[in-house]
# Entry
Amino acid sequence: MGYSIRTSWFAFLAILLSCAAVSSAQQPSNLPAPKEGDYVSPDFHFKSGATLPALRIHYATFGTPVRNTNGQVMNAILLLHGTTGSGAQFLAPQFAGVLFGPGQLLDVTRYYIILVDNIGHGKSSKPSDGMHAHFPQYDYRDMVAAQHELLEKGLKVNHLRLILGTSMGCMHSWVWGETYPDFMDALMPLACQPVQIAGRNRLWRKMVIDAIRDDPDWKGGEYAAQPLAGLKIGAEMFYMAAGSSLQMQRNFPTRDATDAARADYVKRFSADHDANDLLYALNASWNYDPSPELEKITAPVMFVNSADDFINPPELGIAEREIKRVKRGRFVLLPISEETHGHGTHTWAAAWEQYLKELLDASQH
# Structure
């Protein structure tokens, strides 16, 4: 690896705290700047029955779409980010530097790469734009529907070569596979489970949501200043849930080092997150459950988790059980190593790029 373990840990924290904008300063210098834009969906209808007169979906793209003789786009790749993140996470060197360059697996001169800021995230419509707690409650089905509309109506993309999703984007991948089974050639979900969120995964999310709502400074979502007590608990839960116990112990082997790293992370997290946005983003997973319809997925699936993932611990055996129901599915559990980074392994492409290559090779037409 080109980075020290300590450096790589802070690079991962930078991904967790990535700013909403897709910044070319984050990406490897040998890549062109992505083209940014906004698609506005008029009168967007949420599954709850609520509507927004103008739902903004921000995106960035690399490359140019290529169509076959039937007008079908053949080279489009949709990358889906995690909770509280944005498309900017895929510009980090440990992702873009491994995959986007000349001759690499997702070479931007060959593929049309689409980075989306999902509802409630990045530069897309979100509570902190002004509606605060009056913003419509959204769920993963709403987010996937907005992604689909962006592709078809905004970018005129009628087919995807690949959907690769990380964490929340991993869960979106399962929803995509069931809802639009003929839209993609392949799916690569990274760091999630294809079942409803329960157990410890549900508990830590609920703890953050309750911490924000119980903070007197939240004021029902109509705060003038951020409710810092609630955000502090949110930061501490993210710090623990997203990290690797092995990497943390190696990087911060003393009490003082651990306390200093935690305090620094809490400070940066609280400065970079809005409480309503965070609450909504976590609450969006509440009714997620693709398990009843996994048999509807027809595209090849390469499903990858890491053994040091606090959020998706391997001892549950869920992934191994559920992948058997996917017609063309394979599950890979990455063993703990210096290449894995807990839940955040999903953005360290060197840890799993060999499986991406296998998926692309197997799904060629």
